[in-house]
Write a structure and sequence with these properties.
The structure is a homodimer. Chain A has about 400 residues and is an alpha/beta fold. Chain A has 2 domains: about 10-205 and about 325-390, Crotonobetainyl-coa:carnitine coa-transferase, domain 1 (Rossmann fold); about 235-315, formyl-coa transferase, domain 3 (2-Layer Sandwich), CATH 3.30.1540.10. Chain A is about 40% helix and about 15% strand. The first copy, chain A, has helices spanning about 20-30, 55-60, 75-85, 100-105, 110-115, 140-145, 165-190, 200-205, 210-215, 250-260, 265-270, 275-280, 280-295, 300-310, 320-325, 325-330, 370-380, 385-390; strands at about 10, 30-35, 50, 55, 65-70, 90-95, 120-125, 195-200, 235-240, 245, 310-315, 335-340, 340-345, 350-355. In chain A, the strands form 4 sheets. In chain A, strands 5-2-1-6-7-8 form a 6-stranded parallel β-sheet, with helices on both faces. A 3-stranded antiparallel β-sheet of chain A has the order 9-10-11, covered by helices on one side. In chain A, strands 3-4 form a two-stranded antiparallel sheet. In chain A, strand 12 and strand 13 (about 340-345) form a beta hairpin. The longest helix of chain A has 24 residues, at about 165-190. The first copy, chain A, is elongated and about 85 Å long. Strand 14 (about 350-355) of chain A pairs antiparallel with strand 8 of chain B.
């Protein structure tokens, strides 16, 4: 079956997370991703544990649907081959520290001269402009500097890092959007361009209403805990065996919750009639709800509230996420067979296209697995030429 | 100047966050977003505080670059007009509870028959398939059910909600990617399709290495606090006046950090020579670093570590993010003038395109501000026809 991006060729110089996440998203929807890796070393994340039969589970999760070619860009011949490949692809993506490509003689201007239709995308910590442009960053640094940590956590406690590398991942998503947008533009203009995405910028872009609240009220948003800043009840409650998230987003859902809790008198209670009132009398309302919710298990409340149409959910651990019937029905956990590591479960494809569905067509590549295949296919090299390169340790 | 998506017309039926975030990203890059709102009521988020001169700062932050048209889809004439508009646009996006469009007689099959080139995108809580497909969800529910809360927070404490609505926002980003991908495909096939994105699916997709770690080791990832799960030192440290995030991601950075701390003897210390050793002797290393870092202010350490090339950053509050020189240099805080509310600061555009840069061309619209303009432009209605619709309260 046709895939949406199957005619898009991407030269992928990225390592670790932000860049590889962007190219994984494109790969899942059909793009041909040629991952260029340093001979013998490869993507740093090949070293990240845990390993299965010597293969990094981290790397395998992020590099499915890609082919790997080794190429030593520190050699003149390696750079020459890269420039030849640039002519044959639609997109190049890198997430080096800014300046690295220029030092190699492979900066954007050079590549654009070789292929004016090229889309050149870069995901870096702070971007290619501005006073911090030469600095390296990691996810934790941009989570800290971008303000997200200052609003994540429980009141009176410390700022908290999000448990997944959301700084890298959002940069990967914005980079994928930038690449597709530049390709759309190229369909009309015939010209490529540079896409410059910074992890710090993306952190600012996802702050949602925190900036609006601050600039309008002058207050500095603090640690919000698990409670919604403006809606009551909309937070976690203790059950007899754990916790449950309950979100009664409006007065109708509040009434449904009261009935589900077998507390119909609360609907008529003047203190709790509207959301502004429930905010005002929060300190009186919270213990009333606590008192009821703590009497049953999380599972019992889930059934009661689902039947009543009140949005709710358990705080699932990772093993519970994998077992969730909806997650399974949506194929959001897939099992990919790797020739060395065997079968590995990983997240599925969250973009469900009705006519050109994404597919997981191949496991993550072994280092340099496709070098010869790509040299023949893309550059029409013959066996003798390949043998020659091999002897020179170019790949 | 040309913008990349300026020839793309989007009929935007979305409300609140996930959908409007997706269409804002497209709008910022040039797409013409026609926001359809219920007469007199409009997008629910117009009611979300804080307000400036009666205008919601939340709504204004998410709906710049869009036009607003009111249309009562509960009337036959309103639905007829929507179907006429469907013929003239490239994309329709909605984030209603699944089934709502079908009840209105505006389900995907109906719209596709009217315009086979249409890309129909939907962002919902649980998606349009699977056992939970009829349920409503809010951000907090999918953060809980998707596993992210179970790995966010400090060890021994409670699971923690991310302080921004990352469930909505990642769904918005994946929806934007899905729309652009379907448009890319349409350029070749001539046909539109349906894009079905679920907030819960997106939470699973961003779990990064948590799933790999679990399936390989059998351990259930828990609350990780602010410490990197595998790299030392890579966490927050107390300074004399606050905290600082320090990320010494490899042995070279570790050596640089030791010198910056004026503790060169640590480089030679056998216990701390490699990252695996620093993990093993973490409990001995942490107090040593603590003892040094607490002697100077955050700002002093920033300067010292920046000079030494050690990735670091302060844990900025929202007001500090707005004042950051890099954030300012990258135009990641922009000021948009609204005709009623005046100037409002909001996040800028994180996708920097070299040749077709995104622009903020207009503030968020007043409810129904562009109804007549759009009826004339898109459907060629004349004044008499518009007057007639107005009398029937269709808009």
């Amino acid at each position: 079956m046709r895939m949406a991006l199957e005619n898009i060729k991407v030269l992928d110089l990225t390592r670790v997370l932000a860049g590889p996440y962007a190219t994984m998203v494109l790969a899942d929807l059909g793009a041909d991703i040629i991952k260029i890796e340093m001979p013998e070393i490869g993507d740093d994340s090949r070293q990240f544990g845990p390993h299965v039969e010597g293969e990094s589970a981290y790397f395998m999760s992020l590099n499915r649907n890609k082919r790997s070619m080794t190429l030593n860009l520190k050699t003149a011949k390696g750079r020459e081959i890269l420039l030849q490949m640039i002519k044959e692809v639609d997109v190049v993506v890198e997430n080096f520290r800014p300046g690295t490509m220029e030092k190699l003689g492979l900066g954007y201007e050079v590549l654009r001269d070789v292929n004016p239709k090229l889309v050149y995308a870069v995901a870096s910590g702070f971007g290619h402009t501005g006073p911090y442009r030469k600095r390296a960053a990691y996810d934790a640094i941009v989570q800290a500097m971008g303000g997200l940590m200052s609003i994540t956590g429980h009141p009176g406690r410390e700022p908290t890092r999000v448990g997944t590398s959301i700084g890298d991942i959002t940069a990967g998503l914005f980079t994928a959007i930038g690449i597709l947008t530049a390709l759309m533009n190229r369909n009309e203009s015939g010209m490529g361009q540079k896409v410059d995405v910074a992890m710090l910028d993306c952190q600012v872009a996802i702050l949602e209403n925190a900036i609006a609240r601050h600039v309008v009220t002058g207050e500095i948003p603090g640690l919000g805990g698990n409670r919604h800043p403006a809606i009551v009840p909309f937070e976690t409650f203790q059950t007899s065996d754990g916790e449950i998230m309950i979100a009664a987003g409006n007065d109708i859902l509040w009434a449904k919750l009261c009935i589900a809790m077998e507390q119909p008198r609360l609907i008529a209670d003047e203190r709790f009639k509207t959301n502004p009132l429930r905010n005002q009398y929060y300190e009186e309302l919270k213990p009333v709800i606590n008192g009821v919710i703590q009497l049953k298990t999380t599972k019992q409340w889930q059934e009661i509230l689902d039947d009543a149409g009140v949005p709710n959910g358990p705080i699932n651990r990772i093993d519970e996420v994998l077992a969730d019937p909806q997650v399974q029905a949506r194929e959001m956990i897939v099992e990919v067979a790797h020739p060395v590591a065997g079968k590995l479960k990983m997240p599925g494809i969250p973009i469900k296209l009705s006519d050109t569905a994404g597919q997981i067509r191949r496991p993550s590549p072994m280092l340099g697995q496709h070098t010869e295949e790509i040299l023949k296919e893309l550059l029409k090299y013959d066996e003798a030429q390949i043998e020659d390169l091999k002897e020179q340790s170019i790949f």
